[in-house]
Amino acid sequence: MIYTLTTNPAIDMNITSDTISTEHVNRTRDAVYTPNGKGLNVSFTLKHYGIDSTILGFFGGFSGDYIAREAARVCPVRPIRIDGITRVNVFLTTPEGEYKFPNAGARVNRAKQEEMLELIRGLDDLECLVVSGSLPAGIDPAYYDELIDAAHEKGAEFVLDISHAHLRELVERQPLLIKPNDEEVAAIFGVDVKSEGDVVSALHAIHDAGAKNILLTLGGEGAYFFDGERVWHASAAKVDVLSTACAGDATLASFLSLWLTDRMQVEPALTRAMATGANVAMSAGLGDFALVDQLAQSIRVEVVG
Asked: Packing angle between helix 61-71 and helix 38-48, nearest 10 degrees?
């Protein structure tokens, strides 16, 4: 069983406004509220592709109750209840572009962190733990190591989709897969990927540091995947972007939906990943995945190294 862990979930509020100004009231429309968090989005997308998973996370207050209740309509949820109120993030789309207003999230004390670790240690069906997103107040980056230790105790693999600088050390723990973007590779690993040669060099360096597989996403420039033997490049679908808020999570999950069960399916997994991410970028939240098959026709995947 795949388990996804979101340490800092949220309600995402996607809204649209024709203007944004400090001089007058900015009226908004088309509000969409979704239970969110990177790990939740991974589980929701996996479910769309017929792959079961269970959601883990820290949930507090009325917003935490809403997220856990709505998520449970799609996937099983094993919540750790915390004090405080789970955050609400705002994504505002205007004619000038998208404004993102993520909040910090409720504090998670040490007792609740231990409760999560004990929950994971008790998961006899744990095969893969996907850890995604930011850490809330109260959780030290060393908690990632504790989560990995708990997964290892169960003989499970782990996948990391985090932007914390500690990822540089965590790759030494040999994650099954990491999914950085170009900005994260620059900030965490100190490598600017301005050309394909830069990308190939960076992927080899990160693999040599310990990561078994790397899925590097580059937005409109597509994505690269390296398994230690070959480097693949997948092109990006050309779409009108409404919101990028969930696109990366859907990209990761749709890739895993094929690749986790058959490591030879790199090209179809990359095609599905890029088409799904593009379709989600056209939507407020995850959307309905209705155009994935159509968009997949425009994706090109090739071995480049």
From this structure: 20
